[in-house]
Structure formats: C-alpha cells, structure tokens
Amino acid sequence: MSRFLFVHGVYHGPECWDAVTEELRSLGHECHALALQGHGKEDRASFDFRGVGYRDYLNDVRAELRQVGTDTLLVGHSLGGMLVRSIVAEEEVRGAVLLCVPTPASLRRGVALLLRRFPRATLRFLLTLRSESLYHEPSVVPWLFWSTPPREVPDPAWLEQVLSLREPRRLFWDVQWVRFRPQQPGTQLLVLGGQRDFALTEAGLRAVADFHGAPLDMIPGAPHDVMLTHPGELATRLHAFAAQVRTGPTGTDGNP
User: Fold this and answer.
1) CA distances from 15 to 11, 12, 188, 247 (A)
2) pTM to 2 decimals?
3) Closest by Cα among 176, 198, 54 to 107
4) Which tens digit of pLDDT belongs to each residue from 242-254?
5) Residue-by-residue DSSP string for 88-109
6) Pick from 153, 156, 144, 78: which is nearest to 117 by CA?
7) pLDDT the model gives residue 249
8) First to last CA, the chain
9) Does domain 3-103+170-244 have CATH number 3.40.390.10?
C-alpha cells in the first residue's frame, strides 16, 4: 500500500485529518499528518509567530518529507495545498493531491465575497492583516469552512479548534505573491474540490488542474473542509488515486 503525508491549512491542526487517516489505515496505508509550526497541541497557545511566513511553513513540509521519504503521496488542504504545489515544483514525489487549493486570484475573490457578507470584520482584516478579525469571529468561521450559518455547525469542536489557533500576519501578505511552477516530471497530481465551497469555484480549481495537467474531481455537497464533513468520500478518492498513480511527464506552462 501507499504512504501519505497530510498538510493542513490555516487555523487547522493535524487532527483535522483523523477521520480520513483512520479510514486509510484500515485499508492498509501508512499515514503521517504534519503539524505546521505553532499548530501542534503542545505549542499552539504559546508559539511566537513574529517573522514567520510562507517560506517557514514550506520548510516545515520539506523537513517532514525528508523524514518520511519522497516515495510518498502528499495531500495538502487549502494553504497546505499551496505548500504542496511549491514542493512538487522542486522535488519529485510519488504523487500529490491538492484539496480545495486556492490561488492568489481566488483568495482575492474570497475577500470580495467576505466584504459583502461580513464588511466590518473583513475591513479590519484588510487594514491590519490580523487574521483573527475573521478566523476568531464565530459568525464568520462556519461560512468559511463549512458553508453553513453558525447555528448549523456540524460539530462545535471544529469551531473550538479554529478559535484556539493563530496564524502569523506575514503569511497573509506572502500568499498574495506566491508564484507556482509545474511539478517535477514523474509526479502525478489530482485536484479535488467541494461543490459547496464558500469561496473556491469549480472554474478556479479547473485552472489549477489544467496548469498541472491533472484531473479535477468535485465532491458533491462538500464545503471547504472536505476532510471533516466528508471523510469517507475523501478517503475513497485518495485510496483510488494511490492505486493508479504512475510515473510519467506531466505539467503545462502558464500560471493561474
């Protein structure tokens, strides 16, 4: 079977993958879930984020990949997907899955949507780059991650986890300027999205898939946090991807 390395996104920790990795382990796969710096249970309350940015998180993924080896399937969610895109441009791995991965353009679209729905919180974020203005606001978080009003959050523990985490201010500046390159030859990619994602559209994910010469699969009824709301469907797709991964040249030119 295959080895997976999971990379979480902002305001999440490695435990967001628990239901998915449990299912994959039952199918015989080896699973590792990375905690980006400041996101482990032991340091999330006290970690000093001053000076931390996208490159620091990227180094976290590089270091973990050196530990587990490149004969690994990388799975990155949201920001984690951006980090995986950066990794596969420099390192040939067995395969990679980009789950609900934004681009700088789709991030700008998301901000525009938030301005219309939550103008005060979004303006505070734009003026200060303090992400807590959005991600520590209980009326905003359910829409961002689960496409639902606060009273319909599927599991209150999910909201509690988001509210317990922090992110560096610099990160939200850095991600606006990330430029992506095609993956290394021999690294096969799959792009996955949720049909009910608040900010990411199928067209935006299609642009990412086309850039990498990869297939796109949209999970019906799924919001941004597919791994929490639809773990079984996600695990099934990852298991199938692992079974059909093969080496070969992929990738195209351009930069969505």
Assistant:
1) 12, 8, 26, 31
2) 0.94
3) 176
4) 998 854 334 333 4
5) HHHS--SEEEEES---HHHHHH
6) 144
7) 35
8) 33
9) no
